[in-house]
Write a structure and sequence with these properties.
Elements lengths: L2 H9 L7 H6 L1 E7 L2 E6 L14 H17 L7 E11 L10 E10 L3 E10 L5 E12 L2
Antiparallel strand pairs: 1-2, 2-4, 3-6, 4-5, 5-6
Length: about 140
């Protein structure tokens, strides 16, 4: 399968989701070449000791969406790995935030390097919660 075919099969339930999606309670919602969307609802089990959702929730959503955006551009037999990911937190996330949407899209897809950017947005307010970028290495077996 191509990278896009694989991601669509996971998002549509024809292939099992990765364990991290169950652990963090998020799911893939949309996929097209160079773009993916994940959704999740922050809950109390995501909280850190200071009483807000741990930054790892937004970071994991972004890392997953950014990587999958890159994966949608891969031909059959190609793979990728993250070289660098950067995340900026804009607003705190709590269980009252409600459903969040993480959208990621490709900025550059070369022969060996791909970059992508993404945003985590509160569905009910439309406010930006976090944003980030990644650089990935593309490889062929």
């Amino acid at each position: 399968m191509s990278g896009l075919e694989f991601i669509k099969a996971v998002f549509e339930g024809r292939l099992p989701p990765p364990p991290i999606a169950a652990t963090m309670d998020f799911t893939g919602a949309e996929a097209e070449e160079g773009r993916v969307v994940f959704v999740g609802e922050p809950r109390e089990f995501h909280y850190n000791p200071i009483g807000v959702v741990h930054g790892g929730f937004a970071m994991t959503l972004l890392d997953s969406a950014l990587g999958c955006a890159v994966q949608t551009t891969l031909a059959q037999g190609e793979g990728y790995t993250s070289l660098e990911t950067s995340v900026n937190f804009v607003r705190p996330i709590t269980s009252e935030t409600g459903l969040v949407r993480c959208e990621a899209s490709i900025l550059h897809r070369g022969g060996r390097i791909a970059t992508a950017e993404g945003k985590v947005i509160a569905e009910k307010t439309g406010k930006l919660l976090a944003h980030g970028t990644t650089t990935c290495l593309i490889f062929r077996p």
